Amino acid sequence: MFLQKKSIIFFHLPLTGMFLLLIMQSIWLYSSYQLAYKQFTADIERAFKDAREKEQTYRIPIHDIVDPGAVTIESCGTEEILIIRKCTSDTIIYDNLSGISLETFINQAFSKLREDIVPLNIHCLADLFAGALHDKNMPVTFVIERFNKTSGEVFEHSDLQITSKATYVFFSDISKTEAFRVTLHFSPAIVFRQISGTVFSTFCILIAVMLCFGVILYSVNHTGKQKKSSSFTIAQNENSTPIQNKIFQIGKYVFDPDKNELQYCDEIIQLNKKENAILLALCSRQGSMVERNSLLIDNWGDNGIIYSRSLDTYITTLRKYLKQDSSIQIVTVKGVGYKLAVN
């Protein structure tokens, strides 16, 4: 009877341990997923912030569209600061009645001034945001809406639309009365991919513990018998031949695609992934035309979304990088593609 009770105890203990282990593993995986989800959405919001800053730089600078002499800053005591813009037909006054700091008020006033003259382009912002997500390898669909924070009225939205139920929504203020609402959809598998290493390790631990419990059960129920265990090893072949790209001499510039570097004299320009890939395609066929469609597919993929404005933006950026050597030109073959020419 004693041996029978002992056998029952040894039988239930492993089962109880396995059950507790499954609960702990589930909690661990859930926590890991939540952390990965927060990091993923934080990266998305950071990409949108970067896109907004980049969209601002593409607009005409305030000093190029406003005569500096037409803008004055006046103080009416310690509480109130006025920024006055004298126009041909009217005078605009921005006052600091909310009590915010002088630096914040001036930045907001000049941002509003530029917004009145050159409004933001929500479609350009959407293209830049889509390009930033693609650079970070985030397959996310989204729609950007500009709306009134009080009434909820939507003034305009981007061309890109989500085709499934929204999985994440965040907001970004434009002014006191307006804001952006960014609605996104992405598969949970994208987040799971971030914790694939954790999932694999916990799975291995679970298998190992289950094997240990199996051995205990076998030894209790088959005393005197020995079990031969076998093991296997999974090896990964990490031998690969690195692709070595040649270093290109472009006029007075030296372009090293392996390091994502463009060098002019002692100045080194660090290129991002897209800039490096587009310049490499142009250099590889220097003097010959590179089709626009080929650049789009190679850098943004063939997923039905057109990133034409994003490509134009990167071409403009490369031209700025190469402007110190007047013999270098990125020639636009209208409607067809681009060609790198060095005279």
Estimated share of beta-strand residues? 15-25%
Strand order of the largest sheet: 5-4-7-6
* Helical percentage: 40-55%
SSE order in H/E notation?
HHEEEHHEEEEHHEEEEHEHHEE
Helical run tally: 9
* Number of distinct beta strands: 14
Average pLDDT, rounded to a whole number, is: 75
How would you describe the overall organization of this protein?
The chain is α+β, with helices and mostly antiparallel strands and 343 residues long. It has nine helices and 14 strands. Among the domains are: 62-68 and 75-117, no CATH class; 248-342, Winged helix-like DNA-binding domain superfamily/Winged helix DNA-binding domain (Arc Repressor Mutant, subunit A, Orthogonal Bundle). The strands form four sheets. The chain has a four-stranded antiparallel beta sheet, with helices on one face. Strand 4 and strand 5 form a beta hairpin. Helix 1 (2-58) crosses helix 4 (122-135), helix 1 packs antiparallel against helix 6 (196-221) and helix 7 crosses helix 9. It is extended and about 90 Å long. Residues 1-6 and 224-244 have low confidence and may be disordered.
Q: Helix and strand layout, with pairings?
A:
Layout: H1 2-58, H2 62-65, E1 71-75, E2 81-86, E3 91-95, H3 102-117, H4 122-135, E4 141-148, E5 154-157, E6 168-173, E7 178-185, H5 188-194, H6 196-221, E8 248-250, E9 253-256, E10 261-264, E11 267-270, H7 273-284, E12 289-291, H8 292-300, H9 308-321, E13 328-333, E14 337-342
